[in-house]
Amino acid sequence: MENQYYTLVEKQDFYEIIENKYGELAIFIDAREGAPKNPVLEFDGKSTAILRRDERVSVLLENIDEETRAPLAEAEFVLVVELDGKMVNRTYGVPLDNVEEVNMKGRRTRADEIIKSKSREELIESFGAVKVWSCGNK
């Protein structure tokens, strides 16, 4: 059983967004471990987006090119292409969510990642607790 007591937000320093002749967008990023589960891309309409791959790993995309912002904001779905070097590791479609602000709660532990602690309830759930005892003086 794998216990995940934190959420990791990895900053993607270099990525590419391409548009095909049909106006469809694809985002090329570095491959991450494991297949995504219910991924979604949140875009603030300005210069930042976050790909939430699953409940544990998110990928931060900063400094989105000015020309890309309008097509990205209008997209309903994007294709995400994860690369190992120059080889395609996996591709998947992701719904795009336009948000007021990209939410990245947590603390930056290195220049390229943010770790967010889970709430008490999330930690208890992921721990698989069947009973909780409150002890000590109240």
Describe the protein's architecture and organization.
- The model is unreliable at 106-110 (pLDDT under 50).
- Helix content is 12%, strand content 42%.
- By secondary structure, the chain is mainly beta.
User: What is Rg?
Assistant: 18 Å
Strand coverage percent? 35-45%
**What is the chain-wise order of helices and strands?**
EEEEEEHEEEEH
* Low-pLDDT regions: 106-110
Helix content: 10-25%
Shape type? globular
**Chain-averaged pLDDT:** 79
Number of strands: 10
Which class of secondary structure composition applies to the elements? Answer: mainly beta
Largest sheet: 10 strands, mixed
How many helices? The count is 2
> What is the topology, as strand order, of the major beta sheet?
2-3-7-8-4-5-6-1-10-9
Head-to-tail CA distance between termini: 34 Å
Quick rundown:
By secondary structure, this protein is mainly beta. Helix content is about 10%, strand content about 40%.
